[in-house]
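In the design runs reported in the main text, the only information available to the sequence generator was the tokenized backbone. The following block is the verbatim input for one such run; it is reproduced so that readers can re-run the procedure and compare outputs position by position.
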């Protein structure tokens, strides 16, 4: 399953919200340096969908706030 996400780094209140277009907005406390915000976004998605972090991979948007993740039912 592909999930479109907008990541907000350096947030004081980490959370996940869905906007009126059904896009997920993930607010993470870590900065967008060295992939830390991406790792926190993966952790948040892992908790939301109740899957291990190894089942989630970033398809596009490594250096942008808009990202697409692939969530599978098995490890790749």
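Verbatim output:
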């Amino acid at each position: 399953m592909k999930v479109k996400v907008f990541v907000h780094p350096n947030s004081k209140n980490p959370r996940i919200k869905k906007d009126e277009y059904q896009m997920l907005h993930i607010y993470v406390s870590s900065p967008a340096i060295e992939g830390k915000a991406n790792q926190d976004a993966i952790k948040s998605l892992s908790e939301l969908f109740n899957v291990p972090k190894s089942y989630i991979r970033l398809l596009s948007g490594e250096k942008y706030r808009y990202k697409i993740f692939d969530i599978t039912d098995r490890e790749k």
